[in-house]
Amino acid sequence: MIFLSTLLTSVLLTALAVPILSRLALRYSLVDLPNERKVHTQPIPRVGGLAMAIGMVAPVVYWLGGDRFVEAFLAAAGVLVLFGLLDDCLDLAPGWKFVGQVTAACIIIFAGGVRIASLGMLAPDGFLLPGWLAVPITIFVIVGVTNAINLSDGLDGLAGGISLLSLCCIGYLAYLEHHTSIGIIALSLAGATFGFLRYNTYPATIFMGDVGSQLLGFSTITLALSLTQGNSPLSPMLPLVILGFPILDTLTVMFGRMARGRSPFLADKTHFHHALLGLGLHQTESVMMIYLIQVLLIAMAFVLRFYPDSLLLAGYLAFCCTVLLLFSRARANQWQLKRMGPLAVADAFFSRLRDTPLIKYLFRPLELGLIGVLLLTAFMMGEIPVSASLAALAAAAGLLVLACFRSHWLGDGLKLTLYLVIPLLMYHGVQHFDEVSQLVPVVVYRLSFGILALLNILVSRLTKRNHGFQGTPLDFLVLFIALVAPNLPESDIRVYSLGVVAAKIIICYFSCEVVFAESRGDLRRMMLGTLTLLVILAVRGIL
Question: What are the sequence ranges of the domains in the chain?
Fold first, then answer.
């Protein structure tokens, strides 16, 4: 339960902090202004990283207070957040940013014990780098990857999505290796990133800024090094593969600038994501393409985690050569992708369907299906504490008060109530499913979540709304996690059902987003369904 509560707490805290900080940023002009190098055309708040830091810190401090590594990590992260915030506010010179990054690296090295000492099978058996060599190498790697993630933050949702996939991989590997502190930090960061991406996918309404990009870059490389160095069966080459795409992108861009006689630190439009845009892909398609590449690297890292280090290194080098060759040929031949592929066909298909009333026939099953799944799960729960029943009654009374006296707040009240109740329902519903499986076949119950996910995609793709929840590259991340989490190859996770719980919570959350966005203020059915749900929980707990 500790991992699930960590994930959900960080998601909710970040999702709640983003709109508050966004309003403050607009008031005090903490915005990212458009220029010729950027793809956005309007000023956008860049305080998302601060919201992510808030969402990450709370569960980590609660669960891991007093741990030496955790204290060093939080201190180093605090330094980066401070320097990142100063940079976002005052536009610091690169030298000052470098000072902050080196300071954070030194804190985690000397106070947290993180350093690159082992090269695995690439060095003689038992060989460890001496301290005078290990420390500068570790500083170089940490600072380099921190900047690599920072530089990859060029399209909406790009740096966040890459980091989310990397953190999920690190968190799962930490769970398998019983590194609880690393797992909790990784999950808290993954949850914070997920809550932020809700607002950062195209078209973004907030940016993470230097606070977020530096925090994510520093955290992912630090956690990966801590997990794979020392007494660990995992290959020390794993961090290179897990973070391989932003590393390759940064090295390619910097060497390319130097080859043209320019400073490697002078910003331009030569990153891989800019090259994908130049090939004719839309921004969302470019982000999706890089997500797919990152998924392949994550899969390679997981499958080959116990294999010889030379094999991992050879696989990564082969990946680098393939990517560089493809982009080089595309640039030399001035390739332009014609929009006649599957994506173009799908866009044309959905464009035609938007002019039909099909969405009306899909939205109602989604709305009623969500309510039905939640009510069914409420009946499947085991014993409900009296305190939870009283809380359900209080929530029901609060919703009725809002409906009568503050109807314009009802939507937010309903959404907040469901966001708090859904994790409780899914966790206890899964734990006690065997007791009621005679009434509802397992395959039928699980299939209902798959149908909800499909309806989410269809409704969000068919909508004509310009505001609210719409289909984005975040959908890919949601579906990927929802499909992979329940099928992770580890018996303990299957018994504990963490993957199943997480997948169902994510599907229900996105169903809520789509339903509330598409309801256009007609909340009668959701109000009735939520009140019924709360009454069931109250009655079952009291009786």
Answer: 2-337, 353-542
